[in-house]
Amino acid sequence: MASSMLLFLLYSLILQSISVAAQTKSTIAIGDSHTAESNTSPWLLSPSGDFAFGFLPLNDTNLFLLSIWYAKISENTVVWYANGDSPAPKGSKVELNANDGLVLTSPNGVGLWNTTEVLNSGVSRGVFNDTGNFVLQDGNFNNIWETFKHPNDNLLPSQVIDKGGKLSSRLKESNFSKGRFELLLQDDGNLVMHSINLPSGYINKENYYESKTVGSDTSSAGTQLVFDRSGYLYVLGEENEKYNVSEQESGVSTIDFYLRATLNFDGTFTLFKHPKSSTESEGWTIVWTMPDNICTYNVELGSGVCGYNSFCKLGNDKRPTCQCPNRYLLVDPDDPFGSCKPDFIQGCAEDELSKNRNDLYVFDTLTQIDWPKADYVLQKPFTEEECKKSCMDDCFCSVAIFRLGDSCWKKKLPLSNGIYDAATLSDAKAFLKVRKDNTSYVFPPAPIIVNKTNNRGTLVLVVSVLFGSSAILNVVLSVAICVGTTIVFQYKKKLRRFSQSDTGVSTNLRCFTYEELEEATNGFDKELGRGAFGIVYEGVINNNTSSETRVAVKKLNSFLLDQAHKEFRNEVNVIGVTHHKNLVRLLGFCESGRERLLVYEYMSNGTLAHFLFNADDEKQKPSWKLRLEIAIGVARGLVYLHEECITRIIHCDIKPQNILLDDNFNARISDFGLAKLLNMNESKTNTGIRGTKGYVAVEWFKNMPITAMVDVYSYGVVLLEIISCRRCVQEMDQGEEEKAILTDWAYDCYRDGAVDALVEGDNEALDDKGKLEKLVMIAIWCVQEDPVLRPSMRNVIHMLEGTVEVQVPPYPSPVSIQYSLI
Ligand SMILES: *[C@@H]1O[C@H](CO)[C@@H](O)[C@H](O)[C@H]1NC(C)=O
Ligand SMILES: *[C@@H]1O[C@H](CO)[C@@H](O)[C@H](O)[C@H]1NC(C)=O
Ligand SMILES: *[C@@H]1O[C@H](CO)[C@@H](O)[C@H](O)[C@H]1NC(C)=O
Ligand SMILES: *[C@@H]1O[C@H](CO)[C@@H](O)[C@H](O)[C@H]1NC(C)=O
Ligand SMILES: *[C@@H]1O[C@H](CO)[C@@H](O)[C@H](O)[C@H]1NC(C)=O
Ligand SMILES: *[C@@H]1O[C@H](CO)[C@@H](O)[C@H](O)[C@H]1NC(C)=O
Ligand SMILES: *[C@@H]1O[C@H](CO)[C@@H](O)[C@H](O)[C@H]1NC(C)=O
Ligand SMILES: *[C@@H]1O[C@H](CO)[C@@H](O)[C@H](O)[C@H]1NC(C)=O
Ligand SMILES: *[C@@H]1O[C@H](CO)[C@@H](O)[C@H](O)[C@H]1NC(C)=O
Ligand SMILES: *[C@@H]1O[C@H](CO)[C@@H](O)[C@H](O)[C@H]1NC(C)=O
Ligand SMILES: *[C@@H]1O[C@H](CO)[C@@H](O)[C@H](O)[C@H]1NC(C)=O
Q: Which ranges carry the Protein kinase domain (predicted)?
């Protein structure tokens, strides 16, 4: 600011000294040149001294504009400029030469601008006319090039524009680059004003001014736009009719006043006057401005008068100002006519679906404002309340306009053609959806820590570090993360798509309403359990035939669903077509707003975890035979998922909590397909911790492909738990640390020929020692850290059923694949 003031003062001083000196010439000859320096006088002055031609320094820069300005008034009012798009660095030189006319070159010789049009016309001099016109003439005093024929954003008295000629606004008051508005005398004689889209210059087809001088029965078409010597501006018809551009009387004397007609950077076209007499100091004042209200200008494919998300307000001088709504900020703080951006995040991708939108957003209400043409839907008839609610519940909606008493237009960003108009928009209310707090949108969201659902088996990290590498692995792996996209075999995708889309919904899944499930669960009253995916409630549904069915309703953690909305139905259908006696059946689902619920068969005998670990009597372990049946059941369920159903499914989270027991104590796997449904892929690695401590295979941790073998690993761990009725990771008393990690302990016992220790006090199992040892060997095969060594689930079944011999298993974490974990 200070420096620009200084420049300004400096410049006024220079001007004064010049006008006093008044020796500068008004004609140049071939070879004359002028250099851009901070303290040089103009190159030329018109004979009367009214106009100056030369380099004008641009504020705050070392750049100069080759231009014409009023020499006798203090404001630097530029009426013509050569190099608005490429201002000249200090030291640049303009020279008149016979072949090319004026040539402007930078100090390092780069051509910045020239009068290309005169090429080889034999320029012999340049004459600066009192009208403010700089003319190149040939040897016969013919004008071969004039600044009046190459206007920028200004017309001076006696200047005309022919058909096809135009004015082009500058970008900002103080930036002379090509701006966003044009005034054009079309070939059909119509004088029009329109906006263009920078930088391509695409012309928006809508005009905000038209002289309509296109010729008719009673009048002829326009041929010229004339700013005559008396200061009248009109379109001259073919038969010399004068069609006034403005209906207002000008009546300004060109003797007493400087006049200029300027296409302002804001798009308005204004006739300005300035008293010539230096005693009057009122400066430039407006005689008239066209059009009457530029704020009403609407374009289909542009921002309108103001930038995007901004709105236009007309001043008393008919010139617009632009304003950002609350919580919107200028993209470029130095460009008040530019676009505004919200200082908060919104939109479907950003919405935190787990939260009620009313907790996140609030409406900022503006009146008498509209953004025409940003609508995507009209709701009518609608009340104001309905309008607001509809916008709040709609992640596309950024603004709702309520007008006409019953009409609700919903709009999305960016908003365009914004207008404030007290007269025509007196009934309009704009509800801008803004985020309540601007600190809460930390993205990506904080990680979800999967809490253990019980408190008996607290993980003891310190203890386990004392153990061998596999122990470290087991524990460190507990932070493993599920990479969901690879979970379902990709090559089956097509098949699934086919079977789903082309044959219609091939499942009998029932689509519930949220209200139905709310009622069925008595308002989500009785919780059966909760896990990473959500909370499970008990419910009863009426199934037409007056029979009631008990169900388990899983309310998915909507936070996890975030990206999975589109896939929801597909994935639910995938789950829905799986039918196996060792899987929990999906009966239905519900998609309502942000909520996604799954309705499963009710399993009366709880989880395998409860069955194995929560026996009332510590000594009285569940029946060995039953446990064997369960182990085989789980294996069968997994074989089905891995190999037999239409879409192969990797479970990703096999653990006793996810294995349920039905009335007959059949093992039933639950939660299969959810890893895919919740679409946990790499982008989520920081947010969705999947897999459960102690059950996860090394692949999760290493950057290895996720295959069905991850379930085999988890199955091996579960098998050991079934054998021993012990958690895979368990806090142990002093002196028993070696038993804390079940997989390690089991291998140690097996190696030492002491598998009995695993089933201490379990006489049933001890009596079946052959089988016991075989199961331990199978489990050790399953928990091999090298996935290649693990058997497939089908092989596991064969081994369990005895149709395949069980070989001696290797040590699960051999040195060869002891990964450097830290
Ligand atoms: C004049 O400008 C044109 C294009 O802008 C360029 O091709 C030409 O070389 C220039 N002439 C001189 C003498 O700089
Ligand atoms: C200025 O130019 C106009 C048009 O070329 C011409 O008629 C007029 O005589 C010139 N005025 C002066 C003072 O040279
Ligand atoms: C230059 O300075 C004047 C006076 O301070 C100011 O009005 C004008 O907007 C400035 N222009 C630029 C290029 O910053
Ligand atoms: C004028 O604006 C353009 C586009 O924003 C920019 O590239 C250029 O540097 C500006 N010119 C000056 C002199 O500030
Ligand atoms: C056009 O303007 C001139 C000068 O102000 C005036 O005499 C004339 O009546 C106007 N014509 C029309 C049609 O308004
Ligand atoms: C949050 O909003 C307040 C008030 O609108 C504002 O002062 C503050 O700068 C904003 N903070 C951030 C991080 O945008
Ligand atoms: C985990 O447990 C802690 C302590 O019980 C609780 O504060 C926290 O909310 C739980 N987190 C989740 C995601 O359930
Ligand atoms: C409805 O009842 C029938 C017979 O009781 C049962 O087979 C079916 O699974 C039930 N459907 C649902 C959605 O509960
Ligand atoms: C109830 O039974 C009727 C008649 O059998 C049938 O049309 C309807 O689809 C059934 N509704 C449900 C929810 O099963
Ligand atoms: C298992 O379910 C059956 C049938 O609902 C029930 O009779 C039995 O008591 C349940 N057993 C346990 C241990 O909950
Ligand atoms: C996540 O999964 C989606 C859907 O499969 C996919 O479009 C996207 O590219 C994945 N993102 C990453 C980072 O892998």
A: 522-801
